[in-house]
């Protein structure tokens, strides 16, 4: 029988705050009947406004859910409510078999996918021509961007309003360089004091792509990735994998709540191998109205194989194969660094990937303090600034409450402008999500 999830784990699946609030009203037994828990699944009937209750079933192995309600959100409030009911310790029938309507969906979902028809063999010559054509377009776009940045610096940064960054970003999209386009869009949101640094990073990236053929392959792979090239997942999975017991250090979800304005919501999940000590980043995306499909709660461990993307300092990975389900980690904080050691480690990482904005870092025995210049994390000898706007005020004070003035172990993302806390370990050694 699976171990029940924490409330934070369940709520991390919600597509938006409204769904979390609505699910909370269904977390008690009153609206539920004929509930069950067996074979890695939950099911039950939830009373709605009509005469017929909604049929809700959850596959814990996905996780995934199905409900007969008309909601277009996934998971819906009923699926979340059933999970909250279960995670709260409610007694569900564990001996009964799933009803037919639930069993049919579970069986269809879990059966192995039928092998697809073999595609016609790819034409290597045609593939090479397409790759060369794209490389030429990207190189032309990178060169145009370098010229525009040079002109912008030559004329001065004070007249920022005269530059139409959206038009330049569109040009980079046309050049099939979405990575450059994203950084260009970010320029319009960057305050004046940070403009020159962003110009320098963009100019460096565009210039590096112009001579990517001369770079060592690991660095060349990093440059291609930063510009916007992608690696086919099937190609990654066909390559070497790293098996370990991965500690989930924490996760951070960014993007519009619920995927507003048609944009994706992105979840970054950070892992650390118990044997290898290697960090890993899993990315999960959610379409509008849908939460990112992968949710792993901080403070759990997962036996799994990961396939890393190529790069000078491989960090991003894909989940190749699970060997079990997440389980609670021992109530012991992971090893960490001092602020001085963390700054040195991030500096070393930047020598291999200057565009690295999210470097996983665990700090040991630091205290969050509020100074006239903002929040900092100190060990008494050295300190790191908490990145401006990295956390809402409520989360910052929550972190201060967890610390209560005493040193804590803290995991977060180290970047150019400071440290963004993600997870803290309390006095009992339990992981507590900050965001």
Question: How is this fold's topology laid out?
Answer:
Blueprint: H1 7-11, H2 17-24, E1 32-38, E2 41-46, E3 54-59, E4 64-67, H3 77-87, H4 100-110, H5 124-155, H6 165-174, H7 178-187, H8 192-210, H9 217-227, H10 233-237, E5 242-254, E6 265-273, E7 279-286, E8 300-308, E9 316-322, E10 327-328, H11 339-352, E11 359-371, E12 374-378, E13 383-385, H12 393-403, E14 408-415, E15 418-425, E16 431-433
Could you describe the 3D structure shown?
- By secondary structure, the chain is of the alpha+beta class.
- The protein has four domains: 92 residues, no CATH class; 99 residues, no CATH class; 96 residues; 95 residues.
- The protein is built from twelve helices and 16 strands.
- A six-stranded antiparallel β-sheet has the order 13-12-11-14-15-16. The chain has a five-stranded mixed barrel with strand order 5-6-7-9-8. The chain has a four-stranded antiparallel β-sheet with strand order 1-2-3-4, with helices on both faces.
- Helix 2 crosses helix 3, helix 5 runs antiparallel to helix 8 and helix 7 runs antiparallel to helix 8.
- It starts with 6 loop residues before the first helix and ends with a strand.
């Amino acid at each position: 029988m699976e171990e029940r999830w924490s409330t934070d784990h369940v709520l991390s699946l919600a597509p938006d705050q409204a769904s979390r609030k609505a699910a909370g009203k269904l977390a008690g037994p009153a609206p539920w009947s004929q509930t069950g828990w067996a074979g890695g699944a939950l099911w039950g009937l939830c009373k709605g406004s009509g005469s017929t209750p909604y049929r809700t079933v959850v596959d814990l192995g996905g996780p995934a859910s199905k409900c007969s309600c008309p909601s277009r959100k996934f998971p819906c409030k009923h699926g979340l409510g059933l999970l909250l009911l279960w995670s709260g310790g409610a007694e569900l029938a564990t001996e009964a078999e799933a009803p037919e309507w639930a069993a049919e969906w579970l069986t269809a979902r879990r059966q192995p996918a039928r092998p697809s028809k073999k595609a016609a063999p790819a034409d290597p010559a045609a593939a090479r021509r397409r790759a060369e054509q794209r490389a030429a377009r990207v190189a032309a776009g990178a060169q145009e961007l370098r010229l525009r940045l040079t002109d912008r610096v030559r004329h001065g940064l004070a007249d920022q309003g005269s530059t139409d960054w959206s038009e330049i970003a569109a040009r980079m999209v046309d050049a099939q360089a979405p990575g450059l386009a994203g950084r260009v869009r970010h320029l319009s949101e960057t305050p004046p004091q940070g403009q020159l640094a962003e110009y320098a990073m963009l100019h460096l990236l565009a210039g590096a792509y112009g001579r990517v053929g001369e770079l060592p392959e690991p660095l060349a792979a990093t440059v291609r990735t930063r510009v916007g090239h992608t690696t086919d997942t099937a190609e990654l999975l066909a390559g070497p994998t790293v098996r370990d017991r991965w500690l989930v250090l924490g996760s951070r979800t960014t993007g519009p709540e619920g995927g507003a304005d048609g944009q994706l919501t992105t979840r970054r999940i950070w892992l650390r191998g118990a044997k290898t000590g290697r960090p890993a980043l899993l990315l999960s995306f959610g379409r509008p109205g849908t939460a990112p499909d992968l949710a792993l709660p901080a403070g759990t461990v997962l036996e799994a194989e990961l396939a890393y993307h190529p790069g000078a300092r491989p960090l991003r990975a894909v989940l190749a194969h699970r060997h079990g389900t997440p389980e609670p980690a021992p109530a012991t904080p992971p090893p960490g660094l001092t602020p001085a050691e963390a700054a040195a480690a991030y500096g070393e990482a930047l020598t291999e990937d200057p565009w690295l904005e999210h470097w996983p870092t665990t700090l040991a025995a630091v205290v969050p303090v509020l100074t006239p210049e903002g929040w900092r994390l100190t060990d008494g000898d050295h300190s790191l600034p908490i990145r401006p706007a990295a956390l809402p005020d409520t989360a910052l004070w929550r972190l201060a409450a967890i610390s209560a003035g005493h040193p804590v172990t803290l995991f977060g993302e180290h970047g150019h402008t400071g440290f963004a806390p993600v997870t803290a370990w309390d006095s009992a050694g339990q992981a507590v999500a900050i965001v």
